[in-house]
Amino acid sequence: MKNVLVIGSTGQIGSELTRELRKTYGNEHVVAGYIKGAEPQGELRDAGPAELADVTDGELIASVVKRYHIDTIYNLAALLSVVAESKPRLAWRIGIDGLWNILEVARENGCAVFTPSSIGSFGPTTPHELTPQDTIQRPRTMYGVTKVTTELLSDYYNLKYGVDTRSVRFPGVISYVTPPGGGTTDYAVDIYYYAVRGERFVCPIKEGTRMDMIYMPDALKAAIQLMEADPSRLVHRNGFNIASMSFGPETVYQAIRKYKPEFEMVYDVDPLKQCIAESWPDCMDDSCARREWDWAPVYDLDAMTRDMLDKLSVKLKG
Ligand SMILES: NC(=O)c1ccc[n+]([C@@H]2O[C@H](COP(=O)([O-])OP(=O)(O)OC[C@H]3O[C@@H](n4cnc5c(N)ncnc54)[C@H](O)[C@@H]3O)[C@@H](O)[C@H]2O)c1
What we know:
By secondary structure, the protein is α/β, with parallel strands linked by helices. It is built from 12 helices and 16 strands.
């Protein structure tokens, strides 16, 4: 039986990953790690253990790991792309100094570590169509700089110290439980909220700007499946490309209009978000993930759209 610590459990991905891991390994075996000011609420707080786990405090992380006999850490602490541009020093402290603390605790206590990378680890000189697994990574955002460093440092701890580090490059994650935390792909979540509320959506990303996206159930499946994968099959370790769907604003708009024909969208492009979006892949090649650990997404744009509209209709009514 695994004992798991989720760091950043109250964020967009953490809130749902913690619940999924508790379903898989049992409530008592999954600790929801949080920071002051972002305490878990409701089911997340009540269903299993919850502990302060700030990545900038290595001793605190070590004490939680020892107390709960943790063997697997999902480290989701980060500042997302748009926020990181306004607080680059803090983004580095959380993303990299924090990761260093976690990898040290993992080395001393024999833990496996999952620290996600992102499509943001690529930059303008990366091939944009079918972006290969191993390719140019020269991002020009602080978010991207921390993500490339995350991949390299995680690989280093695996090669040098044998720490079992693994990760994927998440596309923009679309979900209806916890709102996104300030990334470039947030528009693809927001658009569904506007559609369900019957309001006109003002899109900050230019028509024709394609990016990889993934529906939350597939993102959770990827993280857990990779951490459960047979290590002898893994040629890569950190930063697996995972693809599921790729679209621009006009395509998701049309997908929603199929079910809500009255829905309206206009554009008011945000220069920072647009600049970041244009530097990211249009669509990634995920054949390594498929080959090495049987990655296969379930949701396409239409299936996700139906589910998002159904779930948000219930949520926003209540
Ligand atoms: N959501 C996406 O679309 C997306 C896409 C690609 C990669 N990712 C990556 O997935 C991970 C999780 O993303 P998310 O969308 O859930 O982000 P989020 O912003 O919603 O959540 C981040 C979490 O980190 C916590 N946190 C902040 N500072 C911390 C610290 N010092 N110590 C411990 N925890 C701290 C926050 O309280 C929050 O719970 C991040 O590494 C992110 O870069 C997310």
